[in-house]
UniProtKB/TrEMBL annotation:
Complex formation: Homodimer.
Gene Ontology molecular function, alphabetical: ditrans,polycis-undecaprenyl-diphosphate synthase [(2E,6E)-farnesyl-diphosphate specific] activity; magnesium ion binding
Name of the featured protein: Isoprenyl transferase
PROSITE patterns tied to this protein: UPP_SYNTHASE (PS01066)
Domain of life from the UniProt record: Bacteria
């Protein structure tokens, strides 16, 4: 992951887009359905977006599917999200593998039910050698937990004499996050009109652009993604520096 501040990427550089898929529960409620029935519709939106993303200039797509805080939801809803992850991998893994997608699950493995941990492992192993498109699913993920885990790893290495304290740099820290090796997200999208990060990619989004489309996740289409990317391209990324025209004006 590139350490910021840095030079803005070229205009046509492939993008890393990260999405907080919000609004499944409201989508269902508005239809008089139980909240959990919004999540299968959310999986349909995931399929549409994964399919369309490479043609929209996206090479890395990171989806926030289940946070470390989501365990506090009703047991039936948690079970439904677990079931859907397994169902998605079971039904789509071969297609993703054929299409050159490398799947990676971000977040803590411990705490996942054994059958979910097993399927996550299978998805990663099966697609490990792919490199056309990178799909990260944040599952049992929390930005703070991830930072704590990276800190613990560094402390353990320092105590074991494997790393010098002075060698603990931004890059060394990033490498130990569950996103280690990925570029930072260029664009973070949160659907449903809410404008919060909710513990998603806290370190990684330091220089991301944010777009908040007013659409519930189950209704999200490739056109919404295209609009968010168009908005991203209208932004001027400065990475803590000042704009060229400001510099020229002194
Ligand atoms: C947010 O909507 C959505 C979630 C917390 C779950 C997202 C999970 C999936 C779409 C299924 C996971 C499966 C795969 C394949 C990764 P919300 O329930 O918070 O909606 P609300 O804000 O309207 O209540």
């Amino acid at each position: 992951m590139a350490s910021a501040p840095t030079e803005p990427p070229a205009k046509d550089a492939p993008l890393h887009v990260a999405i907080v898929m919000d609004g499944n529960g409201r989508w269902a409620k508005r239809r008089g359905l139980p909240r959990k029935l919004g999540h299968p519709k959310g999986v349909e939106a995931i399929r549409r977006v994964v399919e369309a993303a490479p043609d929209l200039g996206v090479r890395w797509l990171t989806l926030y599917a289940f946070s470390t805080e989501n365990w506090g939801r009703p047991a039936g809803e948690v079970a439904e999200v677990m079931r859907l992850l397994k169902h998605y991998v079971n039904s789509d893994l071969e297609k993703l593998t054929r299409e050159g997608v490398k799947v990676r699950i971000l977040g803590r493995r411990e705490g996942l039910p054994p059958d979910v941990a097993e399927i996550v492992e299978r998805a990663e192993t099966r697609t490990a050698h792919n490199d056309k498109f990178f799909l990260q699913v944040a599952f049992n993920y929390g930005g703070r937990a991830d930072i704590v885990d990276a800190a613990r790893a560094l402390v353990a290495e320092a105590l074991a004499g494997k790393i010098d304290v002075n060698a603990i740099t931004d890059a060394a820290f990033e490498a130990r996050l569950s996103t280690g090796g990925l570029p930072s997200p260029d664009l973070v999208v949160r659907t449903s009109g809410e404008q919060r990060l909710s513990n998603f990619l806290l370190w990684e989004s330091a220089y991301s652009e944010f777009v908040f489309p007013d659409v519930l996740w189950p209704d999200f289409t490739p056109d919404h993604l295209q609009s968010a990317i168009d908005e991203f391209h209208r932004r001027e990324r400065r990475y803590g520096a000042v704009a060229d025209d400001v510099l020229a004006a002194g």
